[in-house]
């Protein structure tokens, strides 16, 4: 019986009610038809307040570009700083350059940035123009017909007519469909990437219409929620003129950007337009994140500012001291307008400001622009890497966040989803259990082991093309010679649509059927079960309304119900090769079709099933209900998830074939070839809260109202009716639970199948409540959830299924390589613990020798004690191993734990469930949890929710201060992806929501290996060394001006021409760092892949950290001293001019800086040589031309003919040779010494790259052999007597429950973990925690698979707390995958 719903509470006081009503009104979004307002002022139209459909993604207009772009650029601190310096230079008392000259550098930088922004905005403008000018048909009252208009002219309240294969221009409420059942089929690939079709239904009350929809008769008011970005939720109601209401939801909403398929004509009214559509609200564009290098760089810029102020302070003090040496006023001092001379202190302050202007280039003005250009170049090469291209999907890597490429080389933690990320998300039916009887499907298992899935798209499509109905060709429009379209249908009781094999990707606008590969469709049935199915199907014909057999006690009827549930409890659409169906009127008939059948003589007559007529003499006979009518075509199934497709294919393998689905009926072909059509009363879709799906149907034979439910076993088992009074059902439930545990340990995804029979009164009562919930606007979601939960109770268990999610190619190798690279890998999944652990062993996340701590508890005190116990044990392991294990007197790497992720012990793993995570977060146990995980090389979080996933990522990222990466493929991974430093989405079979929220998108998990180990390392090392070089370059050059101040009375003058100084940074030395940052390769890709440990250099920030910055600063100061004082000592006591003295210094500095860049380059190509030589030659060409034409450019001292005279002086050539050598000699000596004596892996790898290929391969092999020997030495048992930790599992129940477990048999899944994986160690070893008694180890050979009738986990056998018995659990780990065998032991804590 269904529980009564609680009555609504009476409203409160009048004032409170009015305020509440007003708030509700503000949340409403009211839409009416525009037709009554045509020809009238726009102000009278209530829809006028809503946005038009024209979209505008550009940031600027012609008028706003200049002020807006300048305003945005000034938000960057560096630009604001340099503008302020340029403005300061306009004050005569402090100017160091000519005012106009001081503006040139910042103007050039801002112009380059503005041009880049303008180009990007122009591309957006062109894209918007194309979209806004697409055509659609809008109803016009004056023309009495639909007229063609542009998308930008569509308004809220317009009636839009769309045809097959047209793209939807706005969010439209569906009011009419040419499909007789009122269904419209959508392809949402443009929105979420899913290739399967979705069904949308006409709003209730508009289904039974004539062949044409009349917009002028529409007088209703639409009330719905305000625009939001939730693609899956939409609610509202339609208020009719008689004040009655009809509710609707997302099933009636056509979203902008989707494509009409399988439907000839649809009509709807525009609800949201333009930027208020859900597609546009989700279009956030590329994300902006600040990289780790950028954060480090900002700190170093503040250090540079400090150095600048210190140097300016020295200049101000020096100027004051120098002025103080004069007994009177210096002759060069100029009084102000009043004839007064400023004081020495004030002059010192003015000189401080002058020095800031003079030394401003100490802050690298062009660094930010150079970094942006370098990152664009890195993204270009990343995108064009052929190894990151997936031929099957024709997709390469997508870079959505353009400014964090270097962070790919510094990742320390990876958080991964399991399903669709580590696995293929291709669900293959493997096993099932029905009424406690397990069917192993050995033939199907052999097929999956031996079959090599071929990429035979042609073959698959050929299968879909056969079996078309020849007579349906007469239904085509006259003169229609168009090729078959992807999603078209004709309806002659069946529902299906065209699948046309695309001849090339260029002219293919749609994807193949989702979840329909050969390996997923072809299921080999179990012969024993197949025989039982045939017998049960024959008995089905004997059912009548007066002879109903209770399925709970009849195996045959339960088998029939089981496969009927697999076939109809889903949202799968049926498709085949037919033409599009037309809108036709069918007269009510129980024995056949009218005009459509007669229009096609060759079309077989199709029998319809029972109509809703009173039971009695007028009821059709059994022959009218069950009749073999047509040969079966080859159906294609459009499923929203791979699980649904796998179950439908499994049902079809047993000849329970899903033939047709409409909003009102679903038809199944039975094994005898007969058709059985159910009236589809309600469908309760799957959601992440309920974790189940239900359909309510009326059985055509018994007229019973039946609820078929499928869902997660952890949920369904709690919804079953109480079996206390039924011993047989209790046994069936216990056996089914054993089979579920078996499946889960074998790595299979499990689903339970159940049913429930309703009487008419209960159903009508529930249907009324459901109708009220659907018509509600404020709390519709809560009411719908409540009605579903009231219905799905007291279920009868039918059986369960085991579906295999196959591991992706290359996942184990990728995980192994990332592990060697020092990356800790966590898997956060919502799957069952046993399933996740099995997959973890398959992909080498957990190894056979690992110590695995499994923590499941719901008590805060227990959780805290477990964490303390585990931490104490791990620390004892470290303490004892430190004193015992050395390799030639050197401590092994595995014995040096630290507070960072490098402390991870290679032999420890942690498995934890969602409930325990809740306890950790709520009980302030995060610190202990993180401390334990730092010793673990892998962590597996099972049964975790999307919120828990993001919380775990944020906890590790913020508390451990590490670089994190999250990777997933589904909508449930979005929060985790957004929480990490780098989010990676996989373009899988779960749509594109993860991709749209990510920073990078790949198609396979294996691509992560090269993305991080190669491109990540390159991007980080290039950019890090380029940033350090920029700091060095600017400090080295600006110090030349600083040293000169000691010889010019700190007057703020320079010995280098202003234009030469400007050209120096903007042109002469700007190109080599760009080429270096984009093209340099310190180590080859082959070596980086072969030696993953080289990735650790990025994790440790080897190339750019505090020490490298200050070393570069000291080197810059030293080189500037050499470059200044050697020419100074050379020209001392001579009578040369200022610019004649400064030109050699400028030239020497340029040569030194370029040679320094050459020493940093690890790769030498034609481009590298050309850029360096071109920069050097450009300097001389510009200097010669400038000095030749500049006669009075800088009066009174002008650089006329200075360079020409220098080139004729031998001293100039000698200085240009000796000085750079002296300046770079210490650095060269250091690099040579480092290369000779250094033991850095990076240096060793660079040496390997210089060897011939054969010698290089041998050297790499020897490197890996040495590493394996060290690793083997690390694996020596950490305790005396060679005792080792095994599996510590703490079940989540109390001590009293443990005592009771030996007396009372329980089928609860929580208590089934008692006899599994507790603690394995020698008796002589120290006790890990209270309650430990002894040791009992099983051999791997004892884990043979039991027979279907055997108890899968074995008896509990726990006599008392602290005691344990032999754990002959019959582990299913010894499956066909031998790698899953692992020794197990038992201990009760």
UniProtKB/TrEMBL annotation:
One of its GO terms (biological process) is phospholipid transport. Residues 1365-1374 have a biased composition (Polar residues). GO terms for cellular component: endoplasmic reticulum membrane; phospholipid-translocating ATPase complex. It is found in: Endoplasmic reticulum membrane; Membrane. The active site is at residue 417. The chain crosses the membrane at residues 77-94, 100-119, 299-322, 349-371, 1027-1046, 1058-1079, 1109-1130, 1136-1155, 1167-1189, 1211-1230. It comes from the Eukaryota. It is an enzyme of class 7 (translocase). It is a multi-pass membrane protein. Keywords: ATP-binding, Endoplasmic reticulum, Magnesium, Membrane, Metal-binding, Nucleotide-binding, Translocase, Transmembrane, Transmembrane helix. Its cofactor is Mg(2+). Residues 995-1236 form the P-type ATPase C-terminal domain. Mg(2+) binds at residues 417, 419, 969, 973. This is Phospholipid-transporting ATPase. The gene is ATP10B.
């Amino acid at each position: 019986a269904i529980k009564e719903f609680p009555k609504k509470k009476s409203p409160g006081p009048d004032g409170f009610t009015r305020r509440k009503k007003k708030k509700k009104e503000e949340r409403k979004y009211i839409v009416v038809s525009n037709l009554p307002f045509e020809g009238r002022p726009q102000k009278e139209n209530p829809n006028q307040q809503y946005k038009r459909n024209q979209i505008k993604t550009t940031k600027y207009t012609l008028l706003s570009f200049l002020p807006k772009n300048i305003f945005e650029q000034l938000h960057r601190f560096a630009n604001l700083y340099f503008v302020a310096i340029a403005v300061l230079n306009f004050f005569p008392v402090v100017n160091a350059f000519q005012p106009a000259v001081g503006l040139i550098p910042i103007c050039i930088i801002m112009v380059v940035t503005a041009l880049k922004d303008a180009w990007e905005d122009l591309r957006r403008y062109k894209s918007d123009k194309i979209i806004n000018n697409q055509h659609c048909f809008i109803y016009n009252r004056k023309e009495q017909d639909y007229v063609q208009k542009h998308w930008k002219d569509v308004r809220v309240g317009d009636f839009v007519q769309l045809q097959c294969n047209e793209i939807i221009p706005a969010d439209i409420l569906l009011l009419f469909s040419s499909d007789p059942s009122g269904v419209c089929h959508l392809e949402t690939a443009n929105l979420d990437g899913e290739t399967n079709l979705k069904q949308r239904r006409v709003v209730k009350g508009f289904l039974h219409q004539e062949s044409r929809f009349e917009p002028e008769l529409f007088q209703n008011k639409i009330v719905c929620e305000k625009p939001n970005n939730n693609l899956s939720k939409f609610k509202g109601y339609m208020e009719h003129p008689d004040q009655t209401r009809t509710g609707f939801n997302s099933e009636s909403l056509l979203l902008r950007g989707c494509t009409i398929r399988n439907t000839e004509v649809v009509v709807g009214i525009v609800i949201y337009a333009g930027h208020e559509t859900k597609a546009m609200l989700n279009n956030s564009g590329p994300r902006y994140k600040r990289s780790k290098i950028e954060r480090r760089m900002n700190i170093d810029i503040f250090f540079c500012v400090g150095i600048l102020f210190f140097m300016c302070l020295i200049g101000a003090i020096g100027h004051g001291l120098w002025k103080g040496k004069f007994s009177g006023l210096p002759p060069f001092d100029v009084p102000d307008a009043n004839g007064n001379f400023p004081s020495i202190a004030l002059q010192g302050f003015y000189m401080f400001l002058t020095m800031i202007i003079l030394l401003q280039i100490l802050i690298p003005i062009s660094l930010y622009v150079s970094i942006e250009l370098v990152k664009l170049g890195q993204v270009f090469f990343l995108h064009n890497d052929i190894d990151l291209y997936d031929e099957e999907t024709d997709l390469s890597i997508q870079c959505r966040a353009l400014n964090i490429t270097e962070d790919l080389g510094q990742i320390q933690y990876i958080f991964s989803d399991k399903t669709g990320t580590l696995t293929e998300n291709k669900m293959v039916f493997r096993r099932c259990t029905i009424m406690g009887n397990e069917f192993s499907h050995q033939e199907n298992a052999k097929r999956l082991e031996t079959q090599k899935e071929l990429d035979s798209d042609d073959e698959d499509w050929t299968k879909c093309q056969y079996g078309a109905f020849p007579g349906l060709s007469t239904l085509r429009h006259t003169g229609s010679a168009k090729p078959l379209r992807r999603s078209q249908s004709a309806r002659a009781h069946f529902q299906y649509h065209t699948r046309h094999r695309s001849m090339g990707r260029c002219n293919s606008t749609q994807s193949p059927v989702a979840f329909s590969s050969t390996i997923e469709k072809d299921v080999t049935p179990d012969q024993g079960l197949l025989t039982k199915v045939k017998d049960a199907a024959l008995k089905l014909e004997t059912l009548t309304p007066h002879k109903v057999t209770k399925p709970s006690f009849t195996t045959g009827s339960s088998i029939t119900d089981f496969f009927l549930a697999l076939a109809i409890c889903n949202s799968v659409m049926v498709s085949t090769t037919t033409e599009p169906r037309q809108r036709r009127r069918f007269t009510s008939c129980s024995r056949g079709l009218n005009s459509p059948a007669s229009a096609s003589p060759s079309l077989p007559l199709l029998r319809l099933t029972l109509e809703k007529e009173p039971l009695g003499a007028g009821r059709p006979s059994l022959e009218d209900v069950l009749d073999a009518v047509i040969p079966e075509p080859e159906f294609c199934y459009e499923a929203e998830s791979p699980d649904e497709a796998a179950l439908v294919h499994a049902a079809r393998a047993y000849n329970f074939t899903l033939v047709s689905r409409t909003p009102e009926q679903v038809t199944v072909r039975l094994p005898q070839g007969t058709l059985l059509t159910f009236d589809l009363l309600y469908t309760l879709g799957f959601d992440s809260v309920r974790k189940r799906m239900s359909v309510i149907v009326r059985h055509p034979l018994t007229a019973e109202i039946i609820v078929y439910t499928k869902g997660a076993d952890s949920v369904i088992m709690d919804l079953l009716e109480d079996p206390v009074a039924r011993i047989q059902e209790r046994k069936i439930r216990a056996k089914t639970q054993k089979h579920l545990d078996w499946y889960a340990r074998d790595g299979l995804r499990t689903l339970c199948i159940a049913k429930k029979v309703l009487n008419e009164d209960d159903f009508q009562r529930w249907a009324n409540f459901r109708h009220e919930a659907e018509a509600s606007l404020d709390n519709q979601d809560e009411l719908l959830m409540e009605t579903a939960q009231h219905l799905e109770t007291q279920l009868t268990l039918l059986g369960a299924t085991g579906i295999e999610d196959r591991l992706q190619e290359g996942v184990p190798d990728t995980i192994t390589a990332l592990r060697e690279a020092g990356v800790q890998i966590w898997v956060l999944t919502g799957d069952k613990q046993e399933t996740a652990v099995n997959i973890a062993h398959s992909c080498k996340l957990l190894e056979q020798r690992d110590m695995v701590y499994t923590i499941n508890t719901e008590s805060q005190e227990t959780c805290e004690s477990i964490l303390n116990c585990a931490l104490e044990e791990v620390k004892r392991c470290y303490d004892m191993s430190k004193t015992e294990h050395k390799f030639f007197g050197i401590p092994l790497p595995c014995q040096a734990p630290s507070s960072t992720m490098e402390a991870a012990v290679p032999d420890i793993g942690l498995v934890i469930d969602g409930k325990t995570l809740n306890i950790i977060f709520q009980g302030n146990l995060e610190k202990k949890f993180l401390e334990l995980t730092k010793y673990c090389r892998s962590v597996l979080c099972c049964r975790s929710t999307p919120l828990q996933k993001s919380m775990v990522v944020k906890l590790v990222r913020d508390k451990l201060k590490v670089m994190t990466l999250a990777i997933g493929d589904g909508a449930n991974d979005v929060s985790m992806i957004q929480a990490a430093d780098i989010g990676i989405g996989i373009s899988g079979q779960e749509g594109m929501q993860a991709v749209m929220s990510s920073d990078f998108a790949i198609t396979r998990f294996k691509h992560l290996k090269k993305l991080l180990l190669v491109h990540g390392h390159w991007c980080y090392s290039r950019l890090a060394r380029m940033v350090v070089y920029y700091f060095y370059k600017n400090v080295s050059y600006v110090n030349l001006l600083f040293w000169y101040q000691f010889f010019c009375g700190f007057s703020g003058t320079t010995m280098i021409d202003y234009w030469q100084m400007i050209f120096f940074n903007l042109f002469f030395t700007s190109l080599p760092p760009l080429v270096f940052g984009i093209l340099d390769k310190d180590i080859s890709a082959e070596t980086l892949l072969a030696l993953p440990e080289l990735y650790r250099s990025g994790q440790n920030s080897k190339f750019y950290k505090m020490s490298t910055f200050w070393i570069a600063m000291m080197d810059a100061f030293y080189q500037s001293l050499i470059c200044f004082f050697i020419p100074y000592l050379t020209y001392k006591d001579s009578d040369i001019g200022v610019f004649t003295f400064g030109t050699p210094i400028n030239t020497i500095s340029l040569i030194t800086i370029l040679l320094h860049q050459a020493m940093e380059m690890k790769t030498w190509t034609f481009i590298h040589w050309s850029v360096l030589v071109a920069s050097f030659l450009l300097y001389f060409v510009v200097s010669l031309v400038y000095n030749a034409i500049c006669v009075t450019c800088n009066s009174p001292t002008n650089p006329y003919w200075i360079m020409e005279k220098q080139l004729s002086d031998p001293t100039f050539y000698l200085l240009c040779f000796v000085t750079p050598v002296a300046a770079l000699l210490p650095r060269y000596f250091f690099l040579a010494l480092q290369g000779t004596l250094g033991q850095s892996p990076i240096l060793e790898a660079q040496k390997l790259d210089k060897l011939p290929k054969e010698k290089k391969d041998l050297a790499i092999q020897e490197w890996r052999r040495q590493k394996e020997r060290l690793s083997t030495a690390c694996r020596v048992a950490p305790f005396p007597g060679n005792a080792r930790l095994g599996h510590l599992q703490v079940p989540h129940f109390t001590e009293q429950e443990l005592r009771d477990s030996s007396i009372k048999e329980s089928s609860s899944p929580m208590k089934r973990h008692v006899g599994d994986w507790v603690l394995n160690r020698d008796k002589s070893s120290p006790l890990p925690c209270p309650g430990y008694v002894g040791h009992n180890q099983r051999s791997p050979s004892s884990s043979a698979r039991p027979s279907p009738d055997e108890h899968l986990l074995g008896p509990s056998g726990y006599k008392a707390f602290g005691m344990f018995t032999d754990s002959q659990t019959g582990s299913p780990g010894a499956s066909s995958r031998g790698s899953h065998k692992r020794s197990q032991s038992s201990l009760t804590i």
